[in-house]
């Protein structure tokens, strides 16, 4: 295995090196770095051109400049990285680290969401193949996949930001809106759940009534401007998460796992009370991360204590429940901070920027501010990636569902849940890992348009600006980062293969 | 069977979605666009003063106004290096650096009496007396003095060898975007009694038409002196005596010490302000925005609003950002789409459109090709270029006030001067397309049917492509065969190599009086087409070497007339500009000058 990895690594580095030569050359012939000066009517345009030629060493042939660049990069291995300077004389290394940080913030959440939602949708559509739900998801997947990002972003800003902000100013949900949302929910839920027409009708009616009443009550309470969630709801949601996770992973029949998960939910809610002081006004992100790690550790402990014969499963389910409970707690805190945040920022969702300039809120209000700014681009990126993930998962799932071993599993009397999660899903994941790995690598560099329309300065902006100025150094930095990420993600995919498919390990 | 029903359902849903998106896209809003309610002001017909009026602002109101020039990051306090010199950077630094003058809305040179006064005490030889206001101080309390202006001169005069420049062509010591021009005109530099004198005098070796605007807003000499490890007095002496031991570290700091890494504001002690705004502590977030706050020590009328934030956002995001209140003042790309979008926003937004100091033109190639030695061929082409149609079709939808431009050195919105110059230089013969006359000239020039005319421009540029097709539709009837020769490396390859018959591009008016000499006089660097005319050369020499404004005007008429008569090229129109702001703002005024709508930002205030 090690030899295999090393060999692949060696080949990747070689490919990276050759590609860097090619890209450098392509950038240098992509245009004229002096263009703006040639159009200038300054008296000393010739002197300015000379200055830029010296700054960018344009008097040297491209391979000499490439060699100089490569030497600077080689310095990275001896601790003195030099990625050169851009056309404005700014240090590219500093620019790149800023840009990479910004892009990571933008794409991490979107990628995670896209994987979770996309894979889930793929499995559901595979199970309900050729149902109305399947067709609807297929239709939407193709629609989103072919969306022109730019246009979709403009629409998102119009409805997700501008109209939402107009609405939240009063926060009053009018009856048609309430009914509309209820109808949509009443159509969606039965379609996912499936069953006979009679069952669907009942589910639909029930959903409609429930959603309409909840929305109506929330409206009366002016919940949208002054929302609350409360400890009771936290406990209830955490408990729900515990039951759901158990149901999917181990089956509700496995009492030990169920009790472990439920205990985790209760312990989580109680520790929310205990750590309330720290949680409500944390000194830094590290406090939160520390608490989160503690929560996961405790959850695993709880699972192990309850586990017995199903120890491994109980630990997994409890850990997942612990993570979900932590998220619910954070959600509760954010909800509690919402009205204060609205005071500071009456129009909560901006159309540009990764944060509000000169925002003066406390920790959680700032989290809300950056979170709100993350919302629209994340939705956009997620929509696009979900499309491909759900399609791949669906076909991969359908393929494994037709395999002999799945039939065998069914025929030996395993529950449908066990067949799907243990036998079909795990095998269906193998091809998806490759796609996820590649996708993440391309997202790092590929969010060019999203970054631009939402005013984020990430890797995409770095690349495009530099290319427009025929400025090789930032383009090469972009290439280095995306290239290295691609290699690393490929390695991770290989390792994940080995984890998912024991045959590879041998 | 099941499949078929299902695909029918999918089709229905798809159609529905399309209908839905058609109804709900912002471009096709169900409501009638309320154009009549939109307040559209035309900046160019604004009857007011070109300069900033005194609005009687005495106090700074709390609040923040957000503006964006574009997505470009702020680069540093010193905008005068070639690496930082851009409208994006100067939009910020101009709020912190004031000088004796600024450009008004129509390009007029406005004197800033708050900063000080100046007067040409003699026109030939040119001697100018400058007096800085007594209360003019940097925001750290140091008075603005002769030393600051001496340093400003030094950056544009001293060569890397430690001498004062002979002809402006040597390597400069300071990395200044202006080169060594000032030292060329006035090798002695400004003279005063002492380093902390408030008044000084410039003696020019040669009379220079643009003497007013070569003396720009200074950077703080006391900061440079401290960084070079000397006192301000010692720096002044060092400049006067060309002491390189002091000047080298000073130049090093001047050229690099004021450039910043994104998001890292320099030490406040290094960046004092002489304008109404200064850096706000922690106000710069890399890639996001930079905030300026009112300069408490500014001696003139204080900034009307406390904070001014520049957000780094791409121009195509500006309209929605304005609608959502993420930006309060914008200057989007001047396209028909933008204007329509802005007008649909109704009363909440005020739109200003007008002409700018950048102008579009067609230039003939005099080095080679069909037009190089035949005036009649050029005339034939000029008669068939549909100038009015181009303006009506492509520019008027953006800016109502757009007109065909009939001059090169003056702009239509500089009404008085423009009318006077055009009346003297051009009789309106190319105003309307005259295909018969064009055909006559075509024949007289002895051109053959199907003579190829390559119109070169820097592609891609949709508007210019449209212009070429308009010209083609008209001129092909005469017998020309117009070819769209737009290419991405037009300036790099086609223009220097002469692979064109007609070049189409725009010059950005610099506000200088004599800058046109570089374009129209024989063998000048920007005379790409190789035009040469004795009358024009001589008129430029006369114009450039006097400070007398009546002579400037007279010579401009001579030049314009000669350029029309010999058909150097065909001016088309001044580029349109669009600005927009939330209607609750007051005193926002667009300008034709390069500084953009932000030029008077210290007067912007929110209606209470």
Automatic annotation (TrEMBL), chain A:
It is found in: Cell membrane. The chain crosses the membrane at residues 9-27, 103-124, 136-156, 176-194, 201-221, 227-250, 257-279, 285-309, 316-338, 374-392, 428-449, 475-500. It is a multi-pass membrane protein. InterPro entries: BPD_transp_1_N, MetI-like, MetI-like_sf. It comes from the Bacteria. Residues 100-493 form the ABC transmembrane type-1 domain. It holds the Pfam family BPD_transp_1_N. Keywords: Cell membrane, Membrane, Transmembrane, Transmembrane helix, Transport. Belongs to the binding-protein-dependent transport system permease family. PANTHER family: DIPEPTIDE TRANSPORT SYSTEM PERMEASE PROTEIN DPPB-RELATED (PTHR43163). This is Peptide/nickel transport system permease protein.
């Amino acid at each position: 295995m090690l030899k295999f990895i090393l060999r692949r690594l060696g080949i990747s580095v070689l490919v990276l090196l050759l590609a860097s030569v090619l890209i450098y050359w392509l950038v240098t012939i992509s245009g004229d770095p002096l263009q703006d000066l040639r159009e200038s009517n300054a008296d000393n345009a010739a002197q300015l051109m000379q200055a830029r030629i010296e700054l960018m060493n344009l008097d040297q042939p491209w391979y000499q400049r490439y060699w100089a660049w490569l030497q600077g990069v080689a310095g990275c291995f001896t601790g003195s990285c030099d990625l050169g300077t851009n056309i404005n004389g700014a240090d590219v290394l500093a620019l790149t680290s800023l840009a990479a940080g910004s892009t990571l913030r933008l794409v991490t959440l979107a990628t995670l969401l896209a994987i979770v939602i996309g894979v889930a949708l793929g499995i559901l559509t595979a199970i309900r193949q050729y149902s109305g739900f399947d067709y609807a998801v297929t239709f939407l997947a193709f629609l989103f996949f072919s969306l022109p990002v730019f246009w979709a972003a403009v629409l998102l800003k119009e409805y997700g930001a501008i109209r939402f902000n107009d609405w939240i100013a009063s926060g009053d949900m009018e009856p048609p809106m309430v009914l509309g949302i209820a109808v949509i929910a009443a159509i969606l839920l039965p379609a996912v759940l499936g069953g006979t027409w009679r069952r669907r009708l009942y589910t639909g009616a029930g959903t409609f009534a429930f959603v309409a009443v909840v929305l109506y009550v929330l409206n009366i309470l002016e919940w949208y401007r002054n929302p609350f969630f409360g400890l009771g709801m936290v406990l209830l949601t955490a408990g729900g998460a515990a039951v759901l996770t158990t149901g999917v992973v181990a089956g509700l029949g496995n009492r030990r796992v169920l009790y472990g998960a439920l205990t985790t939910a209760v312990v989580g809610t109680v520790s929310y009370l205990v750590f309330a002081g720290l949680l409500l006004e944390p000194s830094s992100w590290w406090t939160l991360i520390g608490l989160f790690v503690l929560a996961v550790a405790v959850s695993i402990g709880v699972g192990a204590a309850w586990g017995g014969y199903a120890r491994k499963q109980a630990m997994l389910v409890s850990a997942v429940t612990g993570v979900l409970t932590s998220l619910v707690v954070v959600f509760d805190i954010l909800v509690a901070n919402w009205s204060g945040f609205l005071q500071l920022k009456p129009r909560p969702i901006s159309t540009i920027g990764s944060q509000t300039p000169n925002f003066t809120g406390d920790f959680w209000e700032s989290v809300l501010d950056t979170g709100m700014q993350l919302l629209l681009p994340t939705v956009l990126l997620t929509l696009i990636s979900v499309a491909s993930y759900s399609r791949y998962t669906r076909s991969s799932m359908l393929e494994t569902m037709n395999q002999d071993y799945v039939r065998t599993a069914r025929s030996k009397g395993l529950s449908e849940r066990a067949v799907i999660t243990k036998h079909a899903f795990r095998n269906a994941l193998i091809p998806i890992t490759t796609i996820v790995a590649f996708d993440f690598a391309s997202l790092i560099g590929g969010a060019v348009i999203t970054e631009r329309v939402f005013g984020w300065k990430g890797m995409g902006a770095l690349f495009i600006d530099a290319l427009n100025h025929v400025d090789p150094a930032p383009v090469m930095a972009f290439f280095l980062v995306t290239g290295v990420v691609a290699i690393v993600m490929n390695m991770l995919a290989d390792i994940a293969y080995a984890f998912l498919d024991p045959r590879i390990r041998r | 069977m099941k499949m078929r029903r299902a695909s029918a359902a999918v089709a229905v849903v798809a159609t529905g979605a399309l209908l839905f998106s058609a109804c709900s896209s912002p471009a096709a809003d169900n409501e009638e666009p309320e154009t009549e309610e939109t307040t559209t002001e035309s900046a160019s017909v604004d009857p007011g003063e070109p300069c900033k009026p005194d609005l009687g602002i005495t106090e700074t109101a709390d609040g923040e106004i957000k503006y964006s020039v574009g997505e470009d990051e702020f680069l540093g306090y010193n905008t005068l290096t070639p690496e930082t010199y851009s409208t994006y950077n100067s939009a910020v630094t101009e709020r912190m650096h004031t000088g004796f003058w600024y450009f008004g809305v129509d390009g007029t040179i406005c004197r800033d009496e708050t900063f000080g006064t100046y007067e040409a005490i003699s026109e030939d030889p040119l001697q100018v007396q400058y007096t800085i206001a007594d209360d003019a101080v940097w925001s750290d309390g140091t008075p603005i003095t002769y030393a600051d202006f001496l340093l400003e001169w030094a950056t544009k005069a001293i060569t890397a060898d430690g001498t004062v420049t002979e002809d402006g062509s040597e390597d400069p010591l300071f990395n200044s975007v202006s080169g060594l021009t000032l030292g060329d005109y006035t090798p002695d530099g400004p003279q005063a009694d002492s380093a902390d004198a408030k008044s000084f005098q410039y003696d020019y070796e040669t009379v220079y038409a643009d003497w007013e605007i070569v003396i720009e807003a200074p950077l703080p000499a006391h900061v440079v002196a401290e960084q070079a490890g000397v006192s301000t007095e010692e720096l002044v002496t060092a400049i006067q005596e060309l002491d390189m031991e002091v000047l080298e570290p000073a130049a090093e700091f001047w050229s690099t010490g004021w450039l910043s890494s994104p998001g890292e504001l320099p030490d406040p002690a290094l960046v004092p302000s002489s304008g109404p705004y200064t850096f706000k502590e922690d106000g710069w977030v890399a890639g996001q925005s930079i905030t300026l706050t009112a300069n408490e020590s500014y001696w003139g009328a204080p900034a009307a609003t406390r904070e001014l934030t520049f957000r780094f956002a791409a121009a195509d995001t500006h309209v929605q950002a304005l609608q959502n209140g993420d930006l309060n003042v914008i200057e989007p790309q001047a396209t028909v789409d933008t204007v329509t979008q802005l007008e649909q926003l109704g009363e909440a937004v005020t739109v200003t459109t007008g002409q700018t100091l950048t102008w579009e033109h067609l230039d003939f190639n005099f080095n080679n090709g069909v037009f190089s030695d035949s005036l009649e061929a050029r005339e034939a082409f000029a008669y068939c270029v549909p100038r009015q149609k181009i303006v009506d079709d492509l520019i008027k939808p953006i800016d109502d006030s757009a007109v065909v431009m009939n001059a090169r050195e003056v702009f239509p919105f500089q009404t008085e001067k423009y009318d006077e110059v055009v009346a003297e230089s051009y009789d309106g013969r190319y105003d309307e397309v005259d295909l018969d006359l064009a055909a006559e000239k075509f024949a007289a020039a002895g051109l053959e049917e199907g003579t190829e005319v390559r119109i070169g421009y820097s592609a891609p540029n949709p508007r210019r492509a449209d212009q070429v097709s308009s010209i083609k539709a008209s001129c092909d009837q005469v017998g020309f065969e117009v070819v769209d020769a737009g290419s991405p490396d037009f300036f790099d390859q086609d223009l220097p190599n002469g692979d064109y018959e007609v070049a189409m591009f725009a010059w950005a008016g610099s506000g200088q009086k004599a800058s046109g000499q570089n374009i129209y006089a024989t063998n000048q660097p920007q005379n790409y087409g190789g035009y040469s005319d004795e009358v024009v050369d001589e008129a430029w020499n006369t114009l450039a070497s006097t400070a007398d404004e009546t002579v400037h005007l007279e010579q401009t008429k001579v030049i314009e007339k000669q350029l029309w008569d010999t058909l150097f090229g065909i001016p088309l129109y001044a580029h349109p500009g669009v600005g927009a702001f939330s209607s609750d703002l007051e005193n926002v005024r667009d300008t034709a000058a390069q500084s953009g709508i932000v030029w008077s930002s210290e007067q912007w205030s929110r209606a209470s």
